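note to self: dont lose this again. the chain is below, predicted strucutre after it. 628 aa total, dont forget to put it in the shared folder this time
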Amino acid sequence: MPNGDSLDSARATLPESSDDRAAAKRAEEVLVPAGLAPSERRLRNLVTAIVSMLTTMPPDTSRASALRYLITRTRTVLDVDAVFLLRREAGVERVVASDGIYTHEFRTLHSDAPGGIFGRRLEADVPMQTRNYLLDSYFQHSEATDLGVQSEGLRAMLGVVLGDAETDESWGTFYVANRSDAPFPAEDVFALNTLAALATSWLNTLDQTEQLSRALHSTRAEAQRAQHENELASRIRIAQDALVQALSGEDGLAELRDHMSTALGRELQAIDLTIQLDLRDRFGAIGDGERALVALSAKSGEPMYANRQDGSGVVVMAAMHQGQTVGAIVAEARQQSEAQRDIETRVLVECGRILGAFLRSQQRARGDYKRRHQDMLAELLAPPPGGLGPMSRTRLAEFGVRDGEPFRILIVDGSESSIATFEHRLELDFGTSLLRGNVGEQLVAVMPERAFSHLQATMTASGARRHGNLLVGYSPKLHPIAIVPEEHELLLRVVQAARASGYTQAMVSLETFGALGAFLSQVTIEPTKRAIRHQLGPLLDYDREQGTLLLETAMKYLDAGHSVTQAARALHVHENTVRQRLDRIAKLMGRDWHHGQRGLDTHLMLTAHRLIGASEQMSIAGPSDDTN
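---
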């Protein structure tokens, strides 16, 4: 503690900044005349330091920062070993801030007793001090409190309430402490009490300022929200008026697009996905990336944002009608605030709704022509007795399917989303000119050869995009319409076999399976099934009865060139498992089942079985048929 014998000893209690020291020096020259007693001189120095301390507090600071500033500067001004603040929150008093406190035991002190940690509740404007807390019976000691104080080595303590006696509002109990038994002089008690009163006023002012700031912020936010709502209402009104004008005008979709661009604040594309696209309209183009976003937007009901391959941003909003995607809004994406993005999202949603309503009014909804396609396809795959009539053949000709002209059958297999994305591709390339529809969970299309050539080149080009787990099966080049049902059944088996065998390419045909596939394309299926039954009957029966995988093991073993190691790797089992299965196969089929001509016959029948009956899990594995 300074002894107060000189101004030099008093300066040790002053703030460390140059501005603080200069202000304190000027105050000393006025307030500390020569000849004062040491206690009076120290008191004057303390008051000067406190005034300087409070006047140099940061003006714009949080409550927590203000308390830290108050505690650290109090320790410097009063030149004490430690300063800490006790505060009661949720019924528990604890150490909430400190300076010069080092031990965990003291920092974690807390108490829910009425008297708090030290067992004595202080009154406002009534300081409390002790020269040695541990020996002072005035306090109600507890084992935890004594241990915490002892761990810090604290002895003398001086505490005041940091709060207002009139309002009974308290920031807590403010303590200074030393690690010696020396009592605090009267001038220190007075200085700390004065400091507490001034700090309380300052903290209350700061708290009121924070409340006013929050209220101002809330008012501004509310005004901004009102402004945004007004802007949103204005933009949506523009878009809604555009629908009325587009319906009454001659330009139709083009006029609607222009007005919606005004509502959005920048140029957009309004795309009609229910008709073949007009390539002369530069606003009607849509890329692969945008198509995927259309599907996502249709599912979520919100705009989808992404980056194109060139790095530019794009936003897409689907236009829906009766659960079908009938159009899309496409625009350049821009960096903007959260509030601006919210307005844009709501405007885009409204524009999507308006575009859907417009396309519905024009009777261009996808469902209208999709139903016609579905009916035509159903009649083609299951024609009435006597075959297709002249009217049906005329309708088929509108899709480019005619007797004598080459055409193909396509079966598209995959997840719901991948098939939907692929159908968007067909829509963009062929519009309504392509006959297609859903058969079960698959998409089936019948297209002229020139259209198939374009599609095949697109899907097999280097770097062509794969649509998830999509598998497209295609028939050989066909000419007579009458063979469509039979060829469709054969192609369905090809797709099922390719899917069951883990085929990895995007497109598959009967020719994909090599010479056997070409052979099977020219034979009747039922006799082939009987041949498979005759050759593989014991394995078929055993697998069906025992739930084993002998048939698959035999196939993998022969495919691997009689390598047990490679067969085990393909089957994802141990080599010993493969050997055990091979022993069982030998007992059922004979030891020469995989040698010579018999091995070739077995391999051919296994391959034919996979191609013809993979999806049926051998519906032909019933009672043996002795007919050869």
